[in-house]
Protein backbone atom coordinates (compact mmCIF):
# COMPACT_ATOMS: atom_id res chain seq x y z
CA UNK A 1 0.00 0.00 0.00
CA UNK A 2 2.85 2.37 0.81
CA UNK A 3 4.39 1.89 -2.63
CA UNK A 4 1.01 2.61 -4.24
CA UNK A 5 0.84 5.91 -2.35
CA UNK A 6 4.38 6.78 -3.46
CA UNK A 7 3.37 5.96 -7.03
CA UNK A 8 0.43 8.37 -6.73
CA UNK A 9 2.84 11.07 -5.51
CA UNK A 10 5.16 10.37 -8.45
CA UNK A 11 2.27 10.67 -10.92
CA UNK A 12 1.28 13.93 -9.23
CA UNK A 13 4.78 15.33 -9.75
CA UNK A 14 4.61 14.41 -13.44
CA UNK A 15 1.21 16.09 -13.79
CA UNK A 16 2.60 19.27 -12.23
CA UNK A 17 5.86 19.23 -14.19
CA UNK A 18 4.09 18.74 -17.51
CA UNK A 19 1.46 21.33 -16.50
CA UNK A 20 -1.34 18.90 -17.28
CA UNK A 21 -2.89 20.05 -14.00
CA UNK A 22 -2.23 23.20 -11.97
CA UNK A 23 -0.34 22.51 -8.74
CA UNK A 24 -3.34 23.06 -6.48
CA UNK A 25 -5.56 20.75 -8.51
CA UNK A 26 -2.90 18.03 -8.64
CA UNK A 27 -2.36 18.22 -4.87
CA UNK A 28 -6.10 18.03 -4.20
CA UNK A 29 -6.48 15.02 -6.48
CA UNK A 30 -3.53 13.30 -4.81
CA UNK A 31 -5.07 13.94 -1.39
CA UNK A 32 -8.30 12.17 -2.34
CA UNK A 33 -6.57 9.19 -3.98
CA UNK A 34 -4.08 8.78 -1.10
CA UNK A 35 -6.92 8.86 1.42
CA UNK A 36 -8.79 6.14 -0.47
CA UNK A 37 -5.65 4.01 -0.71
CA UNK A 38 -5.12 4.50 3.03
CA UNK A 39 -8.50 2.92 3.70
CA UNK A 40 -10.53 6.08 4.33
CA UNK A 41 -14.25 5.88 3.71
CA UNK A 42 -15.88 8.30 1.31
CA UNK A 43 -18.17 9.77 3.98
CA UNK A 44 -18.20 9.56 7.76
CA UNK A 45 -17.37 11.45 10.91
CA UNK A 46 -13.82 10.14 11.28
CA UNK A 47 -11.00 9.25 8.87
CA UNK A 48 -13.10 9.86 5.77
CA UNK A 49 -12.46 11.66 2.50
CA UNK A 50 -15.42 13.96 2.95
CA UNK A 51 -14.81 15.00 6.56
CA UNK A 52 -11.09 14.54 7.26
CA UNK A 53 -9.59 15.45 3.89
CA UNK A 54 -12.06 17.81 2.21
CA UNK A 55 -13.77 19.47 5.18
CA UNK A 56 -11.06 19.57 7.86
CA UNK A 57 -8.13 19.58 5.44
CA UNK A 58 -9.37 22.56 3.43
CA UNK A 59 -9.31 24.74 6.56
CA UNK A 60 -6.20 23.20 8.13
CA UNK A 61 -4.07 26.19 7.09
CA UNK A 62 -6.77 28.80 7.73
CA UNK A 63 -4.48 30.97 9.89
CA UNK A 64 -1.91 30.96 7.10
CA UNK A 65 -4.57 32.01 4.59
CA UNK A 66 -5.62 34.98 6.73
CA UNK A 67 -1.96 35.97 7.08
CA UNK A 68 -1.56 35.74 3.30
CA UNK A 69 -4.53 38.06 2.78
CA UNK A 70 -3.26 40.62 5.29
CA UNK A 71 0.26 40.47 3.87
CA UNK A 72 -1.15 40.97 0.37
CA UNK A 73 -3.21 43.91 1.67
CA UNK A 74 -0.12 45.56 3.12
CA UNK A 75 1.80 44.86 -0.08
CA UNK A 76 -0.99 46.41 -2.15
CA UNK A 77 -0.92 49.51 0.05
CA UNK A 78 2.86 49.76 -0.33
CA UNK A 79 2.34 49.82 -4.08
CA UNK A 80 -0.68 52.14 -4.15
CA UNK A 81 0.84 54.70 -1.79
CA UNK A 82 4.31 54.64 -3.34
CA UNK A 83 6.05 53.36 -0.19
CA UNK A 84 8.06 50.68 -2.00
CA UNK A 85 8.95 52.80 -5.03
CA UNK A 86 9.93 55.73 -2.79
CA UNK A 87 12.31 53.53 -0.82
CA UNK A 88 13.97 52.35 -4.02
CA UNK A 89 14.23 55.85 -5.50
CA UNK A 90 15.82 57.25 -2.33
CA UNK A 91 18.40 54.48 -2.44
CA UNK A 92 19.12 55.08 -6.13
CA UNK A 93 19.58 58.80 -5.49
CA UNK A 94 21.94 58.01 -2.63
CA UNK A 95 23.88 55.36 -4.55
CA UNK A 96 24.41 57.46 -7.63
CA UNK A 97 26.66 55.61 -10.09
CA UNK A 98 28.04 53.15 -7.51
CA UNK A 99 26.59 49.90 -8.74
CA UNK A 100 27.33 47.88 -5.58
CA UNK A 101 25.67 50.53 -3.40
CA UNK A 102 22.62 50.65 -5.65
CA UNK A 103 22.39 46.83 -5.74
CA UNK A 104 22.71 46.59 -1.96
CA UNK A 105 20.08 49.27 -1.51
CA UNK A 106 17.58 47.55 -3.80
CA UNK A 107 18.41 44.29 -2.03
CA UNK A 108 17.56 45.89 1.33
CA UNK A 109 14.16 47.02 0.02
CA UNK A 110 13.56 43.53 -1.37
CA UNK A 111 14.30 42.09 2.09
CA UNK A 112 11.58 44.30 3.56
CA UNK A 113 9.13 43.37 0.79
CA UNK A 114 9.93 39.65 1.16
CA UNK A 115 9.25 39.84 4.88
CA UNK A 116 5.74 41.17 4.23
CA UNK A 117 4.47 39.40 1.15
CA UNK A 118 6.02 36.66 -0.92
CA UNK A 119 6.18 35.52 -4.52
CA UNK A 120 5.63 37.84 -7.48
CA UNK A 121 4.06 40.77 -5.55
CA UNK A 122 7.23 41.18 -3.48
CA UNK A 123 9.38 41.02 -6.61
CA UNK A 124 7.25 43.68 -8.27
CA UNK A 125 7.35 46.00 -5.27
CA UNK A 126 11.15 46.00 -5.19
CA UNK A 127 11.86 45.34 -8.84
CA UNK A 128 9.68 47.72 -10.84
CA UNK A 129 12.06 50.57 -10.04
CA UNK A 130 14.99 48.58 -8.65
CA UNK A 131 15.79 46.35 -11.64
CA UNK A 132 16.03 49.22 -14.19
CA UNK A 133 18.04 51.23 -11.65
CA UNK A 134 20.62 48.47 -11.30
CA UNK A 135 20.84 47.89 -15.05
CA UNK A 136 21.32 51.63 -15.56
CA UNK A 137 24.49 51.69 -13.46
CA UNK A 138 26.01 48.63 -15.14
CA UNK A 139 24.67 45.62 -13.23
CA UNK A 140 24.07 42.75 -15.65
CA UNK A 141 20.34 42.10 -16.17
CA UNK A 142 20.54 38.53 -14.88
CA UNK A 143 22.20 39.76 -11.68
CA UNK A 144 19.68 42.59 -11.31
CA UNK A 145 16.86 40.04 -11.33
CA UNK A 146 18.82 37.71 -9.05
CA UNK A 147 19.51 40.50 -6.56
CA UNK A 148 15.80 41.20 -6.10
CA UNK A 149 15.13 37.47 -5.64
CA UNK A 150 17.97 37.13 -3.13
CA UNK A 151 16.48 40.00 -1.16
CA UNK A 152 13.04 38.39 -1.10
CA UNK A 153 14.59 35.11 0.09
CA UNK A 154 16.52 36.93 2.81
CA UNK A 155 13.20 38.30 4.02
CA UNK A 156 11.69 34.80 4.25
CA UNK A 157 13.11 34.02 7.72
CA UNK A 158 11.36 37.21 8.89
CA UNK A 159 8.17 36.50 6.93
CA UNK A 160 5.27 36.17 9.36
CA UNK A 161 3.19 34.34 6.74
CA UNK A 162 5.97 31.78 6.37
CA UNK A 163 6.12 31.32 10.13
CA UNK A 164 2.40 30.61 10.23
CA UNK A 165 2.59 28.17 7.31
CA UNK A 166 5.44 26.17 8.83
CA UNK A 167 3.71 26.15 12.21
CA UNK A 168 0.46 24.86 10.72
CA UNK A 169 2.05 22.38 8.31
CA UNK A 170 4.41 20.74 10.80
CA UNK A 171 2.25 21.22 13.89
CA UNK A 172 4.98 23.08 15.71
CA UNK A 173 4.64 26.18 17.95
CA UNK A 174 5.27 29.59 16.40
CA UNK A 175 7.97 30.24 19.01
CA UNK A 176 10.04 27.33 17.70
CA UNK A 177 9.56 28.44 14.11
CA UNK A 178 10.62 31.99 14.99
CA UNK A 179 13.66 30.75 16.89
CA UNK A 180 14.96 28.62 14.03
CA UNK A 181 14.25 31.22 11.35
CA UNK A 182 16.12 33.91 13.25
CA UNK A 183 19.05 31.51 13.62
CA UNK A 184 18.92 30.78 9.88
CA UNK A 185 18.76 34.47 8.95
CA UNK A 186 22.53 35.22 9.25
CA UNK A 187 23.32 32.28 6.94
CA UNK A 188 20.87 33.53 4.32
CA UNK A 189 22.16 37.09 4.70
CA UNK A 190 25.79 36.01 4.25
CA UNK A 191 25.03 33.89 1.17
CA UNK A 192 22.97 36.64 -0.44
CA UNK A 193 25.56 39.34 0.19
CA UNK A 194 28.21 37.02 -1.27
CA UNK A 195 26.12 36.74 -4.44
CA UNK A 196 25.78 40.51 -4.78
CA UNK A 197 29.42 41.32 -4.02
CA UNK A 198 30.77 38.65 -6.38
CA UNK A 199 28.33 38.92 -9.27
CA UNK A 200 28.16 42.71 -9.46
CA UNK A 201 31.90 42.81 -10.11
CA UNK A 202 31.11 41.57 -13.61
CA UNK A 203 29.89 44.78 -15.10
CA UNK A 204 27.25 44.98 -17.79
CA UNK A 205 26.52 47.74 -20.26
CA UNK A 206 25.18 51.01 -18.88
CA UNK A 207 21.73 52.06 -20.06
CA UNK A 208 20.87 55.69 -19.48
CA UNK A 209 17.27 54.98 -20.50
CA UNK A 210 16.68 52.60 -17.61
CA UNK A 211 16.36 55.18 -14.84
CA UNK A 212 17.11 58.83 -14.12
CA UNK A 213 19.44 59.11 -11.15
CA UNK A 214 19.50 62.87 -10.78
CA UNK A 215 17.46 64.52 -8.04
CA UNK A 216 14.09 65.95 -9.03
CA UNK A 217 12.22 69.05 -7.82
CA UNK A 218 9.68 68.59 -5.08
CA UNK A 219 6.77 69.07 -7.49
CA UNK A 220 8.02 66.19 -9.66
CA UNK A 221 8.42 63.95 -6.64
CA UNK A 222 4.83 64.60 -5.68
CA UNK A 223 3.62 63.75 -9.19
CA UNK A 224 5.55 60.46 -9.01
CA UNK A 225 3.75 59.64 -5.80
CA UNK A 226 6.52 59.72 -3.20
CA UNK A 227 5.28 58.60 0.21
CA UNK A 228 6.08 60.72 3.31
CA UNK A 229 9.20 59.71 5.21
CA UNK A 230 7.32 58.49 8.29
CA UNK A 231 5.30 56.08 6.13
CA UNK A 232 8.43 54.31 4.88
CA UNK A 233 8.69 52.23 8.05
CA UNK A 234 5.33 50.56 7.34
CA UNK A 235 6.84 47.21 6.24
CA UNK A 236 8.89 47.11 9.45
CA UNK A 237 5.91 47.57 11.78
CA UNK A 238 4.71 43.92 11.72
CA UNK A 239 8.26 42.62 12.09
CA UNK A 240 8.98 44.83 15.10
CA UNK A 241 5.71 43.84 16.78
CA UNK A 242 6.17 40.10 16.15
CA UNK A 243 9.88 39.98 16.99
CA UNK A 244 10.23 42.62 19.63
CA UNK A 245 6.90 42.31 21.45
CA UNK A 246 5.81 38.77 20.49
CA UNK A 247 2.49 40.05 19.18
CA UNK A 248 0.62 37.28 17.29
CA UNK A 249 1.04 37.23 13.53
CA UNK A 250 -2.42 38.33 12.38
CA UNK A 251 -2.57 41.41 14.68
CA UNK A 252 1.00 42.32 13.71
CA UNK A 253 0.15 42.32 10.00
CA UNK A 254 -3.09 44.18 10.64
CA UNK A 255 -1.18 46.86 12.57
CA UNK A 256 1.09 47.31 9.56
CA UNK A 257 -1.95 47.79 7.32
CA UNK A 258 -3.48 50.36 9.67
CA UNK A 259 -0.19 52.27 10.01
CA UNK A 260 0.29 52.38 6.23
CA UNK A 261 -3.25 53.67 5.78
CA UNK A 262 -3.01 56.33 8.49
CA UNK A 263 0.36 57.69 7.34
CA UNK A 264 -0.44 57.93 3.63
CA UNK A 265 -4.15 58.74 3.39
CA UNK A 266 -6.24 61.79 4.18
CA UNK A 267 -8.96 61.09 6.80
CA UNK A 268 -11.77 61.57 4.32
CA UNK A 269 -10.27 59.01 1.95
CA UNK A 270 -9.38 56.30 4.49
CA UNK A 271 -12.42 54.13 3.94
CA UNK A 272 -12.24 54.37 0.17
CA UNK A 273 -8.52 53.48 -0.02
CA UNK A 274 -8.85 50.71 2.57
CA UNK A 275 -11.69 49.03 0.70
CA UNK A 276 -10.14 49.47 -2.75
CA UNK A 277 -6.78 48.08 -1.66
CA UNK A 278 -8.45 45.19 0.18
CA UNK A 279 -10.32 44.19 -2.98
CA UNK A 280 -7.04 44.23 -4.91
CA UNK A 281 -5.42 42.19 -2.14
CA UNK A 282 -7.98 39.43 -2.70
CA UNK A 283 -6.84 39.17 -6.31
CA UNK A 284 -3.21 38.91 -5.21
CA UNK A 285 -3.91 36.48 -2.38
CA UNK A 286 -6.26 34.15 -4.28
CA UNK A 287 -3.61 31.90 -5.95
CA UNK A 288 -1.62 31.14 -2.74
CA UNK A 289 -4.82 30.68 -0.74
CA UNK A 290 -6.08 28.10 -3.23
CA UNK A 291 -2.68 26.38 -3.01
CA UNK A 292 -2.84 26.33 0.80
CA UNK A 293 -6.32 24.79 0.66
CA UNK A 294 -4.91 21.94 -1.44
CA UNK A 295 -1.81 21.56 0.76
CA UNK A 296 -4.06 21.27 3.81
CA UNK A 297 -5.99 18.48 2.13
CA UNK A 298 -2.78 16.65 1.26
CA UNK A 299 -1.44 17.02 4.80
CA UNK A 300 -4.70 15.61 6.20
CA UNK A 301 -4.49 12.66 3.79
CA UNK A 302 -0.92 11.66 4.63
CA UNK A 303 -1.68 11.96 8.35
CA UNK A 304 -4.47 9.37 8.18
CA UNK A 305 -3.61 6.27 10.27
CA UNK A 306 -3.59 4.03 7.20
CA UNK A 307 -1.22 6.32 5.30
CA UNK A 308 1.10 6.71 8.29
CA UNK A 309 1.34 2.94 8.88
CA UNK A 310 1.92 2.27 5.18
CA UNK A 311 4.48 5.00 4.51
CA UNK A 312 6.50 5.09 7.74
CA UNK A 313 8.49 1.84 7.16
CA UNK A 314 9.39 2.87 3.61
CA UNK A 315 10.30 6.46 4.44
CA UNK A 316 12.26 5.36 7.52
CA UNK A 317 14.28 2.91 5.43
CA UNK A 318 15.04 5.53 2.79
CA UNK A 319 15.79 8.44 5.13
CA UNK A 320 19.42 9.00 6.13
CA UNK A 321 20.28 8.54 9.78
CA UNK A 322 22.95 10.45 11.67
CA UNK A 323 23.93 14.06 11.33
CA UNK A 324 26.56 13.64 8.60
CA UNK A 325 24.39 11.52 6.32
CA UNK A 326 21.44 13.84 6.92
CA UNK A 327 23.43 16.81 5.63
CA UNK A 328 25.10 14.96 2.74
CA UNK A 329 22.01 13.22 1.41
CA UNK A 330 19.61 16.14 1.67
CA UNK A 331 22.26 18.50 0.28
CA UNK A 332 22.54 16.25 -2.76
CA UNK A 333 18.75 16.22 -3.14
CA UNK A 334 18.42 20.02 -3.23
CA UNK A 335 17.54 20.08 -6.98
CA UNK A 336 14.42 18.03 -6.21
CA UNK A 337 12.76 21.16 -4.83
CA UNK A 338 13.03 22.82 -8.27
CA UNK A 339 10.58 22.49 -11.16
CA UNK A 340 7.71 21.58 -8.79
CA UNK A 341 9.64 18.53 -7.63
CA UNK A 342 8.89 16.29 -4.64
CA UNK A 343 10.69 18.56 -2.16
CA UNK A 344 8.89 21.74 -3.20
CA UNK A 345 7.75 22.91 0.24
CA UNK A 346 4.74 24.70 -1.26
CA UNK A 347 3.67 21.57 -3.08
CA UNK A 348 4.32 17.88 -2.61
CA UNK A 349 7.17 18.69 -0.21
CA UNK A 350 4.59 19.69 2.40
CA UNK A 351 3.15 16.18 2.16
CA UNK A 352 6.62 14.64 2.48
CA UNK A 353 7.20 16.78 5.57
CA UNK A 354 3.89 15.56 6.98
CA UNK A 355 4.99 11.95 6.50
CA UNK A 356 8.36 12.59 8.16
CA UNK A 357 6.68 14.17 11.18
CA UNK A 358 3.66 11.88 11.59
CA UNK A 359 5.85 8.80 11.11
CA UNK A 360 8.37 9.97 13.71
CA UNK A 361 11.22 9.67 11.20
CA UNK A 362 12.78 12.95 12.37
CA UNK A 363 11.90 15.40 15.15
CA UNK A 364 9.49 18.07 13.98
CA UNK A 365 12.16 20.72 14.54
CA UNK A 366 14.49 18.89 12.12
CA UNK A 367 11.75 18.75 9.50
CA UNK A 368 11.24 22.48 10.05
CA UNK A 369 14.92 23.08 9.31
CA UNK A 370 14.76 20.89 6.21
CA UNK A 371 11.74 22.73 4.81
CA UNK A 372 13.15 26.17 5.61
CA UNK A 373 16.48 25.31 3.97
CA UNK A 374 14.85 24.00 0.80
CA UNK A 375 12.54 27.00 0.75
CA UNK A 376 15.56 29.25 0.21
CA UNK A 377 16.42 27.46 -3.04
CA UNK A 378 12.82 27.31 -4.19
CA UNK A 379 12.19 31.01 -3.55
CA UNK A 380 15.12 32.19 -5.69
CA UNK A 381 16.29 29.61 -8.20
CA UNK A 382 13.17 27.72 -9.28
CA UNK A 383 12.52 28.87 -12.88
CA UNK A 384 8.85 27.89 -12.56
CA UNK A 385 8.13 30.06 -9.51
CA UNK A 386 6.19 33.24 -10.21
CA UNK A 387 8.70 35.63 -8.62
CA UNK A 388 11.60 34.14 -10.62
CA UNK A 389 9.67 34.26 -13.88
CA UNK A 390 8.59 37.87 -13.31
CA UNK A 391 12.04 39.10 -12.23
CA UNK A 392 13.77 37.39 -15.15
CA UNK A 393 11.30 38.63 -17.75
CA UNK A 394 11.34 42.17 -16.35
CA UNK A 395 15.15 42.15 -16.54
CA UNK A 396 14.98 40.81 -20.10
CA UNK A 397 16.52 37.38 -19.52
CA UNK A 398 15.26 33.80 -19.37
CA UNK A 399 14.34 32.31 -15.94
CA UNK A 400 16.83 29.50 -16.54
CA UNK A 401 19.63 32.07 -16.67
CA UNK A 402 18.59 33.42 -13.29
CA UNK A 403 18.61 29.85 -11.97
CA UNK A 404 22.14 29.27 -13.28
CA UNK A 405 23.30 32.56 -11.74
CA UNK A 406 21.77 32.05 -8.29
CA UNK A 407 21.72 28.26 -7.74
CA UNK A 408 25.36 27.92 -6.56
CA UNK A 409 24.66 30.47 -3.83
CA UNK A 410 21.20 29.22 -2.80
CA UNK A 411 22.53 25.66 -2.74
CA UNK A 412 25.28 26.84 -0.40
CA UNK A 413 22.67 28.57 1.78
CA UNK A 414 20.61 25.37 1.89
CA UNK A 415 23.66 23.37 2.97
CA UNK A 416 24.28 25.91 5.72
CA UNK A 417 20.67 25.49 6.85
CA UNK A 418 21.01 21.70 6.85
CA UNK A 419 24.21 21.87 8.90
CA UNK A 420 22.46 24.19 11.34
CA UNK A 421 19.49 21.80 11.54
CA UNK A 422 21.69 18.79 12.17
CA UNK A 423 23.72 20.58 14.82
CA UNK A 424 20.70 21.91 16.68
CA UNK A 425 18.18 19.09 16.38
CA UNK A 426 19.91 15.81 15.44
CA UNK A 427 22.85 15.66 17.84
From TrEMBL:
Organism, as annotated: Umezawaea endophytica
Highest taxon above the source species: Bacteria
Record field: transmembrane: 7-40, 60-79, 100-125, 131-158, 179-198, 239-262, 282-302, 314-338, 345-362, 409-426
Sorted UniProt keywords: Membrane, Transmembrane, Transmembrane helix
Name of protein: Transporter
